[in-house]
Amino acid sequence: MTPATCQVALPIPADKPYEYLIPASMADRVEPGARVVVPVRSQQMIGVVLDLSRSSKAGLKQVLLAPDQRPILSAGLLDLARWLSGYYLAPIGLSLRAMMPSALWGRSRLIAQLRDPTAAPGGASRDIIRLIERSGGRIGATQLSRKLHRPVWEPLQRLARVGAVTLETEPPDLGPRQRKERILVLTTRLPSLMERENVFGKARRQREAYEAVEAMGGEVAVSHLREKGGFSSAVLKALVERNVARIEERSRDRDFLENVVPSRHPQPINAQIDAISDIHALEPGKSALLFGVTASGKTLVYLEALRPEIEKGSSAIILVPEIALTPQTISRVYGALGDTVAILHSRLSDGERADAWRSLASGERRVAVGTRSAIFAPVQRLAAIVVDEEHDTSYKHGESPRYHARDVAMRRGIIEGAKVILASATPSLETWARESITVISLPQRITEQPLPEVSLLDLRHEPRVSGSGAVPWTKTLDVAVDAELAAGNQIILLLNRRGFANFLQCPECGSVCECPQCSISLTVHRTPEGLRCHYCGHTEPVPMACGQCGHPIQRARGMGTQSLEHWLAERFPTARLARMDADTTSGKWSHRKIFDAVARGDVDILFGTQMIAKGLDFPQVTLVGVIDADTALHLPDFRSAERTFQLIAQVAGRAGRGRLGGRVLIQTRNPIHYALEAAAKHDFPGFSQRELAMRESPAYPPHVGLVNVVVSGLNEVAVADGAVKVSEWLRGLVSTRADATMDVIGPAPAPLARIKRRWRWHMMLRGTNRQLLDRVTRYAAVRAPFTREGPVRVVFDRDPVSVL
Fold first, then answer.
1. pTM
2. Which residues, 6+ apart, have CB-to-CB distance to 551 below 8 Å?
3. Is pLDDT at 110 greater than 80 in this prediction?
4. Is residue 177's pLDDT more than 80?
């Protein structure tokens, strides 16, 4: 009989899956969606089974291990992985790697052990031997390659053949195990006082411990008894020795809702009830846009729409764009749907993510709440997916596969028959223009408060407060902040730029400190002090003198949230400040701590970048100020006006959500720009009509499909030449395989010409026939010049959200 085999996808950029024999002893566990440990060259890796088959190929290796009791991915998620791989032009293994927590992907280590250094030949082999000697005679191949800055696989094989080293493989880690917890369980009932007196006598603490466990249901965690009850290990051990209790060790998942206080869940009003009914009427697999002004109660609507599905035992996924929104969303979901929630986002530890994944896969938890990657949560009986703030660009993944979570959600909804709810007060134009999406409107705030009054302050003419330096602080904004502080109200200030200053410049020769790896100036930071690149993370100390001319004085130009903090502390010394940007929220629960402080009234002025602009509900906020609305308005990106409108409209919506009302002050040098005028009027339909007309000629999404083709490499000239070669190849392909509905734009240097030491050129494939664009792009992604690994690399980005 032909042996049973399986196709296995590995988390590497391989074009095709690998084929392995299935041992008879594992036949019941090796099935599609299951993890398996397989040999790959001289190491072992974890892969995912895609298909089963029978093969007569000679020399196939066997599956080594099937570590899980059941498949880790459902048939629906496997179908989604295949679609993800095809649409976003990524190897299936990389698509699966993006879908699962990294802790579930183990990889073995190849270890080089020094055996006979005299047997090594000279040249590069001698360098390897010397480095192994300096490392104590034993080193991992990956670490060795990193230190030598070159591949070492082939040289190590040669050294092993001549007996200079031995190579051994450490097996892969199968991921963090579930936590174990010791539980004290009462085994003997002592209902009468006489019985307790006979058993415990004068052992008062033992009796107190027994009665404490009895009062808590007969079993309690040992750690709880010791930490909260104050009972020593000796007291608990004595209960076991008296045969009235035993200690069991049980698996315990990490507590997803630790320290989360459920929000009060209000009753929906008439407009919300109508919207809930519209969602209930939505057919499985269909999508709806929940389009409502800020504070119209969109969250309550989708939670109420989910409630009957969860009560029936079905599951749901709720996506939020920022980790910053997770605490408030978790609190609201907890209040509405109970403790069925698991959290998935990048700030969790490997163990926490693995626990959340397991709890959702087992059905123990049925609501996944998280950022972009939570769209792949392995929930059972998926009934609905919510994409909150669906317009947000953080739903786009920056590495292969370069997926957009909103579009993945809609595809998963089709595959698994789940309703998809896209919620936003400022929808993306791609969503707004899609005819297949039902629009459910909430035009009024639930409190019946009017939307806040918005004023545009012209920075070219508005008088400024003396001493504000680089911070454009107008007298109008100053008076408004002072008045709200005096009234005991709260204020939100938006400045969408981190750091203390944009750049450091020599006043003598004009040179600017730039990142050595990116085509961008280094941002000045004060806490901690230094110069930092916000693209690659490069840091260096602030120079004492100009590196070009030696001039001793350097001047900081521009501003950021740190300089705003410095100004606010000087201007309003009694105000309690909280800064929220990527520098202050690096800790796991730092977002929650800041928001909790604001909710308690311990913060007077909350200021920061775009993470404070959306989804937050603080009724005491009566004033919102936008320090500089122009930071993204003139970027070389066709979506710059749309992003500016969305950011301003969203942050404006944080004001006046309570009975006190509120107002918004927007500082700009271009108050007649249509994006700012529409944001001031809370007029999304008017903005969308104007913007859609602007994108008709030249044509940009949503009128056309777009693929950004980026050519990059370490050599500037080679990249430029490569970009020309790729563009000529693409034009030849379009002329023979496409028609007039498709064209190639470019090539040209990317607006950010160098990132992480790699020079970048780009061009665009554009077409109104999206199916034709899809076919041509798939063909090009595997056949165009430089699609293989090499010094020059080409990347095809489907549906880009940024072309910088």
1. 0.80
2. 506, 507, 508, 509, 545
3. no
4. no
Yes or no: say if 190 and 170 are a contact pair by the CB < 8 Å rule: no
pLDDT in tens, 281-339: 999 999 999 999 888 889 999 999 999 999 999 999 999 987 766 667 777 888 888 88
* 117: three-class secondary structure by DSSP: helix
With beta carbons less than 8 A apart as the criterion, state whether 420 and 287 touch: yes
Average pLDDT across the chain, whole number: 87
Amino acid 774 reads D
> How far apart are the two ends of the chain, measured CA to CA in Å?
57
What would the two tokens of residue 707 be? 């693929």
Half-sphere exposure of 492 (CA within 13 A, CB side): 34
Q: Which residue has the tokens 């494939």?
A: 765
Q: Is-contact 76 38, C-beta < 8 A?
A: no
HSE-CB at 387 with a 13 A cutoff on CA atoms is: 32
| Cβ-contact 392, 363 below 8 angstroms | no
Predicted local distance difference test score (pLDDT) of residue 683: 94
In terms of DSSP bridges, do strands 219-221 and 165-170 run parallel, antiparallel, or are they unpaired?
Answer: unpaired
* Calpha distance 383→313 (Å, rounded): 10
Nearest to 256 by CA among 334, 325, 177: 334
The burial class, CB within 10 Å (0-12 / 13-18 / 19+), for 663 is middle
Cis (ω within 30 of 0) for the bond into 698? yes
Euclidean distance between CA atoms 308 and 575, whole angstroms: 45
Distance separating alpha carbons of residues 275 and 706, to the nearest angstrom: 33
| Token output for 773 | 């664009």
pLDDT tens digits, residue range 55-79?
878 889 988 888 888 898 999 999 9
* CA separation for the pair 309, 771 (Å, rounded): 35
Residue 190 corresponds to which tokens in the numbers above?
């002592």
Angle at 324 between CA 323 and CA 330, to 5 degrees: 80
Helix (H, G, I), strand (E, B) or coil at 800: coil
**Helical residues (DSSP H) of 601-683, grouped into ranges:** 640-652, 674-680
Q: Which residue has the tokens 């041509």?
A: 776
Q: How many residues are given for the chain? A: 804
